[in-house]
Design goal:
With 147 residues, this protein is mainly β. The protein has a domain of 94 residues. It is built from one helix and twelve strands, in the order E-E-E-E-E-E-E-E-E-E-E-H-E. Strand 3 and strand 4 form a beta hairpin. The longest helix is centred in the last third of the chain and has 7 residues.
Length: 147
């Protein structure tokens, strides 16, 4: 895990910077963490839904420098959980969970408020965004970008 004062910029042997997924404090712009991630790489953000109190995992893939939503995994419908399928979307089961896939949405950045358990799944690691936010005052508004 790379966080706090132990932040690194990754470089290729030719001296150019490697691509990273970067998390910043939205208000101050302070870098909270950077993780190497190749183009077409995937990561996920998981959090406990504030209404139905069950985990929601949003999976993204990087393509052309943008963050493309690949799927949303959840356990219960409720406020803020998509209940109607759009064109090209599918609902499937993964054990007790439901998964909606087939999204066509992309984002330049993602914004979250880390006030409960939020986790970043990247490069076979699970990083607690809550622990990172607590080091910088807790209840952080974060921005996630690919650079």
């Amino acid at each position: 895990m790379i966080s706090g004062a132990a932040l690194y910029i990754f470089h290729f042997r030719d001296g150019s910077k490697a691509s990273v997924l970067e998390i910043r404090d939205t208000g101050s712009g302070r870098v909270l963490g950077r993780w190497p991630l190749d183009e077409r790489g995937e990561f996920a953000i998981e959090f406990i839904h504030s209404v139905n109190q069950s985990p929601v995992r949003e999976t993204f893939r990087v393509e052309d420098g943008r963050l493309w939503l690949q799927g949303v995994r959840f356990y219960s419908f409720g406020a803020g959980i998509q209940s109607d399928l759009g064109e090209g979307q599918e609902l499937s089961r993964d054990g007790d969970a439901m998964v909606i896939s087939g999204f066509s949405a992309s984002f330049r950045e993602l914004n979250y408020i880390v006030g409960s358990d939020h986790f970043l799944f990247i490069n076979n690691e699970v990083i607690s965004l809550r622990e990172i936010a607590d080091k910088f005052g807790g209840n952080a508004h974060i921005t996630i970008r690919y650079r």
